[in-house]
Design goal:
With 308 residues, this protein is of the alpha+beta class. Helix content is 27%, strand content 28%. The structure holds pyridoxal-5'-phosphate.
């Protein structure tokens, strides 16, 4: 999806012009992928722009940094404040936010520890990641032949730059085969997650998603939907899912910050349920969107206002 330039990008404490937010070609993160990042969204609310679960996203960013021994020279509170400042200065309400912790330039080699740690925060307007049609009518997914990284190869608990080679290999194969999205299996053959989304299935009044031990990212949208579903009276379970569970589910959907909630209409050319977004998916999706707009009292804490 093309990026629409905005005005300023926050780079290690300074707001710089969009066109000046550059790194050197010998930057080690560019070569070896040793960096961690977040994907966050800000939404328009009655009280101005609000970033959805910003504090939780920044906490995950710092957990990722810890796994990769990146000692961030800013506190989490400073990065929360810098994120709000970047949204405000660009005069955006609804936008995507990309904080990145990366290695500074000056060292080269496979030991990242001598490199300085830099942080950038960019924001831009970004529409629906899998497209309007997928959101309305459901997407077509396929189980990838690429497996999710094993915890002892590249830990899926972090959201690290180089880790996304795995997701991109699966995504490219899915697109070339004519599907919208890939679903990756864990090394032991359980469903893990989509290339950039968590996966849920619905069976009767039970809403099921794979446990984190099967290698999905601990998605913040996943946690939100689990809470919304439990509050709506569904039984929510974290349990192993195999590919036929997806084929035979009543409903299935993806969750993620970029994709938001996207119904899955087909998996490997088999319609899921009736092959259209089902009523449980619709109900959860509507509550989620209302929550992001600050319209659900119960979830007001998830909505972190940019101004005041
Ligand atoms: C591999 C993967 N799974 C799941 C998710 C969904 O996580 P979240 O809801 O926090 O955006 C993402 C997005 O960050 C992802 O990259």
């Amino acid at each position: 999806m093309p990026i629409t330039p905005t005005s300023k990008i926050w780079m290690s404490g300074q707001l710089v012009d969009w066109d000046d937010a550059r790194i050197h070609v010998l930057n080690p993160t560019l070569h070896y992928g040793w960096g961690v990042f977040e994907g966050i969204r800000s939404y328009a609310t009655a009280d101005g722009p609000a970033v959805f679960r910003l504090t939780d996203h920044i906490a995950r960013l710092y957990r990722s940094a810890k796994i990769y021994l990146m000692d961030v020279p800013f506190t989490q509170e400073q990065i929360v404040a810098a994120t709000k400042e970047t949204v405000a200065v660009n005069q955006l309400e609804t936008c995507y936010i990309r904080p990145l912790i990366y290695l500074g330039h000056g060292e080269m080699g496979l030991n990242p520890l001598p490199s300085p740690i830099e942080v950038s925060i960019a924001v831009w307007p970004w529409g629906s990641y899998l497209g309007e049609d997928a959101e309305q009518n459901g997407c077509r997914a396929t189980i990838s032949t690429w497996r999710r990284n094993d915890n002892n190869i590249i830990p899926p608990a972090a959201k690290a730059s180089g880790q996304y080679l795995n997701s991109s290999l699966a995504k490219v194969a899915a697109i070339k085969a004519g599907y919208d999205e890939a679903i990756l299996l864990s090394p032991n053959g359980h469903i893990a997650d989509g290339s950039g989304e968590n996966v849920f299935i619905v069976s009767g009044r039970t809403v099921i998603t794979p446990p984190l031990t099967d290698g999905p990212l601990g998605g913040i949208t996943r946690a939100s939907i689990m809470q919304i579903a439990a509050d709506a009276g569904y039984e929510v379970r974290e349990q192993h899912i195999v590919r036929t569970d997806l084929y035979l589910a009543d409903e299935a959907f993806f969750t993620g910050t970029a994709a938001e909630i996207v119904p899955i209409a087909e998996v490997d050319d088999r319609p899921v349920g009736i092959g259209k977004p089902g009523p449980v998916t619709r109900q959860l999706l509507e509550t989620f969107h209302a929550a992001t707009r600050g319209e659900v009292d119960r979830y007001k804490d998830w909505v972190e206002h940019v101004h005041g």
